[in-house]
# Entry
Amino acid sequence: GLGDNLFKVVAWYDNEFGYSNRVADLTAYISDHFND
# Structure
């Protein structure tokens, strides 16, 4: 479900070192899915 996917995204995001880039990517990713 969405919760599982979100957890995976957050776990991946949490381990990334490019913080600002990940914020932009994550925002675009979430926006993309909610607008689908």
Observations:
- The chain has one domain: 2-34.
- Residues 19-34 form the longest helix (16 residues).
